Amino acid sequence: MFLIYCPHCEELREEEEFHPKGQAHIVRPADPEACSDEEWGDYLFFRDNPRGIHHELWVHAVGCRKFFNVTRNTVSYEILETYKIGEPPRITAESLASDEVQGKVQVASSGQQTVGATNATVETVKGEKA
Amino acid sequence: MQRYSGFGLAKHALSHHENWERQWRNPTPKKQYDVIIVGGGGHGLATAYYLAKEHGITNVAVVEKGWLGGGNTARNTTIVRSNYLWDEAAALYEHAMKLWEGLSQDLNYNVMFSQRGVMNLAHTLQDMRDVQRRVNANRLNGIDSVVLTPEEIQEIVPIMDCSKNARYPILGASWQPRAGVARHDAVAWGYARAADALGVDLLQNTEVTGFKIRDGRVYGVHTNRGDIEAKTVGCVAAGNSGVLAKMAGFRLPLESHPLQALVSEPLKPVLDTVVMSNHVHGYISQTDKGDLVIGAGIDGYNGYGQRGSYPTVEHTLQAIVEMFPIFSRVRMNRQWGGIVDTCPDACPILSATPVKGLFFNCGWGTGGFKATPGSGHVFAWTLAKNQAHPLAAPFSIDRFHTGALVDEHGAAGVAH
């Protein structure tokens, strides 16, 4: 069970209130009619699907019903931050890799599924840390 | 290869079954092969077997990062059926079904294929229309399929709540008598043993870390045990296909999700068929050992962790108990997740890629096990002849640009 911090409600809520909606930051082509079949197919269907840091869209379906973004590790499932639509992620695969080299960030050991149980994790989820 | 038979069993009994020969070798990787298969699950091993058997290409390596059949082959709910809606998908899955029917004899390995029938329930009027449409489509494609009434369902599965008072009353079902279950591990082991006997090298604990590509053409792979060269490379890596595609420099229209399943404590025989319900989201069968095998829908988020969230399990069990009140006090023994590579149209990708000589067989999503023999058979053909098998042609990756999708979300069932 994830505990997800909704940046609109500003509360940690249980996973069942939310729905994942796939990869975030996909920009709809400004002029779809001008797209080639390749560009349109890529926009509709092709995804990054990374093993590791993933920026994804979630909706607080039975809460405020608003959309927001989550940065999550797809192997450990740890939620690193949540942020509103239109904001850039603070944590990316690149930033994490460089921080790891400097020993700033501890990546959760795999096997951790539940997020948000401790204050330290809550801070991470809110994006105040790291 | 030591052939298995009743006589052999009796002979080995005399020496207390201590002298059975190993089922396959554990070879050292050669520098070069004709074909490399990346991924030693059911589909990969089947591909290697049919390459050797049907096309005489025996200089083949199957490169597996863990152990044979340790991924989704070991994690599925073993259901085999072919009642898909569209002609292209039905042809592919029915091709697999026909191979299933002779598989134990072909491999000289008991895969315990049991054609006990699969039932897809309908709980709403729209469900009923979908069932009727699919059954009609199946019959036009020569696939056995019938519509059942609630009375007929009750006769086949007496323990199911078919009353009108249920929260989601059962209005009918589609029924494929030839469908059933098979022993998942035995499928991987049977293909591995038969492929090994034909000269295929099964390289376990060998992880592909990159592709050797020159001028847009693949000529080998980097592994943790050194480089291996081959002009043709087939990737059959299920949930990790996206990771391999990234190594090769392109993207796939796939998302990897956790798909969970669970088994109960062993019970006396109580359910002799497979029951699936799209509407309330659950499917169930009983193994020969007596465990109830229960499957669920995918977890909606991307995940490579081979586990999912508890609410998904709870949701599935709610559906199962709703249909089978008799199971409300059954205790669950084990629960696990696999990584399924879901495609936007719930159909697989059997295709050439932007890199010449590199082929992908992926995107089977939640329903790959049933297709194991057919997938391997047509993919071997594709690799051997360097062109798509007629049954594989509609499943080219190009379809996501041309728009010729094969939308099987209905027939793919509960898991999507």
Would you give an account of this structure?
- The complex is a heterodimer of chains A (130) and B (416).
- Chain A is an alpha+beta fold and 130 residues long.
- Chain A is built from 3 helices and 6 strands; from the N terminus they run βββαβββαα.
- Chain A folds into 2 domains: 13-87, Folate-binding superfamily (Folate-binding fold, 2-Layer Sandwich); 92-130, no CATH class.
- Helices cover 30% and strands 23% of the residues of chain B.
- Chain B has an 8-stranded mixed sheet. A 6-stranded mixed sheet of chain B has the order 8-2-1-12-19-18.
- In chain B, a hairpin with a 2-residue loop joins β9 (208-214) and β10 (217-223).
- In chain B, α2 (42-55) packs parallel to α7 and α3 (87-101) packs across α10 (372-385).
- The two termini of chain B are 41 Å apart.
- In chain B, 53% of the residues are buried.
- The mean pLDDT of chain B is 95.
- The A-B interface holds A 1-2, 15-16, 19-20, 22-23, 37-38, 40-42, 44-51, 54, 56, 72, 74-77, 110, 113 and B 240, 242-243, 246, 251-256, 300-305, 307, 309-311, 344, 400-403.
Question: Characteristics of this structure?
Answer:
heterodimer, A: 130 residues, alpha+beta, Folate-binding fold, 2 domains, 4-stranded antiparallel β-sheet, 3 helices, 21% helix, globular, B: alpha/beta, FAD/NAD(P)-binding domain, D-Amino Acid Oxidase, Chain A, domain 2, 6-stranded mixed β-sheet, Sarcosine oxidase subunit delta (chain A), sarcosine oxidase activity (chain A)
Which pair has the most extensive contact? Answer: A-B, 30 and 25 residues
What structural class do helix, strand and pairing data of chain B support? alpha/beta
- The geometry of chain B reads as globular
Count of the separate structural domains of chain A: 2
Q: Looking at CATH, which topology of the largest domain in chain B would you report?
A: FAD/NAD(P)-binding domain
Pfam families (chain A): SoxD (PF04267)
GO biological process, one term (chain A): tetrahydrofolate metabolic process
InterPro entries (chain A): SoxD, SoxD_sf
GO molecular function (chain A): sarcosine oxidase activity
